[in-house]
From TrEMBL:
InterPro entries documented for this protein: Lamin_tail_dom, Lamin_tail_dom_sf
Protein name, per record: LTD domain-containing protein
Residue intervals of the LTD domain: 190-309
Top-level taxonomic group: Eukaryota
Coiled coil (UniProt feature): 39-66, 92-133
Organism listed in the record: Tegillarca granosa
One Pfam assignment: LTD
Membrane-spanning intervals of the chain: none
Keywords on record: Coiled coil
Amino acid sequence: MSGMWKGELRKAVSEIQAEYDRQLEVVRLELEQKMVLQIQKMQAGVNRDNKEIKQLKDENTLIRSRLEMTLSKTGDLESELAKQKVNAQIEMEMKNQTEEDYNNEIRKLRDLVNDYEKRIETFVDELKVIQNAKLSLESEILMYRKLLECEEKKFASPRNLDETALAEIREIKRDPVQQKTEYDEIVGNVKMSKACRSTISISNASIDGAYVTIENTGAEKRNLKGWKIERENDRGRITSKYVFGDVTLEAGKDLTIFAAGDESEQYSDKDLAASFYTWGAGSGEYKLYGTESQEENDHDVMASLSMEFSLQKEQTASSRNINFERNLGIICT
């Protein structure tokens, strides 16, 4: 009995051992397969990692190369930037120097222009003086010619003058604004301004120094004994002076004093003649000295008439004339 159980036990143990071995082999095979799969996966991951590492190494190498190139270019750019900064500083200094030179040149040119303008003004003033002197000389020449004509008729009555000369004199006295004379190459403008503080005033004067006219704007006649007229040229020098004798100027009337040599050459009964040949031509100022009362001895300026003459160049087909445009600024009290 025991032997049978032992045989059965041995058989069972053998079967269990065989099943165990079979199961163990199955487990071993599964584990080996799993290990192989794991190893294959790990090997594939290693290969992939190696590829990525290689790729990263290549990229790292490329980046390093590019970085080295960039650093080299950065150095070159920094060097170029330093040079550009130096050049910019030099250019700025040159620009500032150029601007300073330009401003200095502008100041010099402005000073030069101002100097030339002053010179031109001086030349214009000198030219004006010369032109006035020329006008004065030519006016005096014309006056001397007329005086010579009068001298030729000295022993004849003034009323026996030829009609042409008398008409010319009357025309000059009546309208001194436009005077036609024998002055070739002379055309000019005359600006007159007068002031007065008495009923006796200077109403008119000839630009060529031929006459001066005074008038009585009051309601009563005035005796002019001791009164005088003086003419100053544009430089302030007195060129002529006339002192009235026992002369009475009626109310609302005028009186003309001609520079005609002597009293016999007056052109009407009421006109007077000075002892000098001309009052003076060109720009100047006439001053009338007198008193409001016969008892007063001090003579004050009772009236004045200033004349400013400027020349222009103008030529017509036939002849040239003096056109006097009179601009009167009148101040009377």
